[in-house]
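hey so i finally got around to running both of the ones u sent me last week. sorry it took forever, my laptop kept dying halfway thru and i had to restart like 3 times lol. anyway pasting them below in the order u listed, first the sequence line then the structure token line for each. didnt double check formatting much so if smth looks off just lmk and ill redo it

first one:
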Amino acid sequence: MVRAQPLARLLLLCLTHLSPPGACDVAGGAGSVNSLPAAGSARLAPSFDAATPKNVTALVGKSAYLSCRVRNLGNRTVSWIRHRDLHILTVGGYTYTSDQRFQASHSPHTDDWTLQIKWAQQRDAGVYECQVSTQPVRSFFVTLHVVDCDEIYQRMFSDAVPSARILGGPDLHVDMGSTINLTCLIQFSPEPPAYVFWYHEDEVISYDSARGGVSVVTEKGAATTSYLLVQDAAPADSGRYSCAPSNADLASVRVHVLNGERPAAMQTGSAGLSDSSRAIALLLVASLLHARLRSALLAS
């Protein structure tokens, strides 16, 4: 069940599309390892590596890898069995199912026997048994969880409250005659807003008013963006502007239309540049006077 998985870890898995060994382990699994052989026969009898992951999480449509590490295998064989229907999937390196998504792999000189399930589906979730052909047989159980990223995303944002904000606030300064360009971003909404209204002070902005030069462009998606453009800004266009989507609280900024003046916060340091230029000019004059004086002394 997806509910048993930490959402943050599953979201990370969805974002990376990776399932590195051990990274998908989750607590509380159903895996078990048979007891180790009695003292004196441990060198010869097969045994399982208890550190092998007993729980594996895979993404829908991606490959799932179930690992089984068997020490001292000798001439025994390793089989993979699906517990849902007790179907023998693989024996050694051979596949015993018509479902070609299942494949066993073993790297020579290693203890690893891996069952690969290509293009995993949610129906593949369940318990798988890695079985060694001893008498009696020895078994290692792995539980596979298969999750759908779309379901994870919906669960991650189902409790999030839709919100709106206007970029660049809370105060924006524009020159008179320029264009007021406001961008409203609506996020964490399960679906795009049905509409987005813009307000100047407490009045809904009319796009076909006598003033003219006002336009709105709204791009809907996972995050909805609405743009308000007011051309040829005049002092009367100063004031509070608000973005009010249908599914979130409104967001506001205050716009100041400047008639040539510059507030202290918007000084660009031009005075500092003038002082620097003046200092450079004085240095050049001093260098020139020094060169002329030196030439006069040499001539005399």
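and the second one:
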Amino acid sequence: MPHELKNLETPKDFFNYFFDDCLLSIITEQTELYSTQVDPSKPIILSKTELQRFLGILIMMSVDHVPNSRSYWSDNLGNMPIKNCMSVNHFERIKRFLHFNNNNLDLPPNHEDRDRLFKIRPIVELLKAKFSSVPFDEFLALDEQLCPTKARSYMKQYLPLKPHKWGYKLFVLCGVKGYAYNFEIYTGNENNSLERQQMLEPDLGATGNVVVRLSRVIPRNEHHKLYFDNYYTSIPVMVYLEKLGIHTVGTFRRNRFPDIALMPEKEMLKKPRGTYDECLTVVDGVPITTVSWKDNKIVNVTSTFIGALEPTKVRRYDKKQKKNVDVERPKIIEVYNKHMGGVDLMDSLIGRYRIIMRSKKWYIKIFYHLLDMTVVNSWLMYKKITGNTMPLAKFREHLSVTLMQSGIAKRGKGRPSGSFEIQENIKKKRTQTPSAPFNEIRRDCLEHWPNYEQQRRVCKMPKCKFQSFTKCSKCCVYLCYNNDRNCFVDFHCS
């Protein structure tokens, strides 16, 4: 791990590693520029701190669901951290003018060199560079991912086998644990011959070129294993990657491997369950093994580094015998099933707590999806480096609260409201003692003021058992602040 990753401790530190100051500066500058282009008389002024609060609100909305976005500021369904962070009008104003690139630099729609992802291209390139800066796992998986949407867009695709069938398609390169190292948003015109010539890459077809482009970030000759399904598997792709030192495993269709020396499928269907056939060939000096195995259906798998080897036993239910029986399974099938599910795991982690804000602008919806992907990557790196097994929901809650309370605390306007009615002979119930704030908030040294309260409480400083009337205005905890003990300073500096 790089030293800058090893020194990270909190969820906010890991998130800021991906969403760094450079990326925040681009968003703030382009948002202010776009607001000036739309309405020069009322331009928006957006700071990095306000943008972090805006991102914190979006992440909190992915955990806490209400009927619509304005309900977060309501009296009955409202969320107090969101209400204390930003007003609803300011939030909707930022959401309206949120932008990532200068529209004046975009080419006409009918131009042959126009980038269809121009509006979000800076965010895509910066995140791809950050994601790929993390050391790679040995086993990698490449598959499709869908950003669900019902908006009208020429980039919207239909994938009938996905849970959400309509949306923007992405090709993602993930590790076994679900970490996304690289991704590519499908727009329909990625087959750029000029770019391939500059990179000295062969033309391997539309799907083959996707595999080659996503594999550029994989270190060469370090024996990484890449897994993909039959949509990407072809002999030229496997040969090209093997010459780069990247081993491959993938399912395939018989029509993509003509004249293959395997048992015909009609004949294999007559064989008992667990039957398999294997053949080996050499293409341009690269050995390629293909295995056909009968399970519920016939499964065809090919690889450049592994074959059937010694078959293992798996349990399957036999309808005729009405019991579980042992079935032989080739080693290549076991390896493929074990390491292929990285992209599906990333989909599952994103789908649990997805930012469900609706938008008619396609690039805003993709930005929300990339933000979810960044949060999941931050959580996976947080668990791997710190060893903390914090659940994803708790990680999102912790991250959103620290982002919303970053910078100077927002003060309420007007005089404080209070009740002057005197109720006699009524014993007041003791309110619950507030919990200690997160370390990022406690040590930020911004807007921590001692306030004198009418009622004293136990000091929140560890190992201090005294009571105090002094309360921190930002942390909302009681701390000793007198001539004998100064827990207020120790609490915010230790």
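quick thing i noticed on the 2nd:
Residues 7 and 65 are 34 Å apart (CA to CA).
anyway thats it, ttyl
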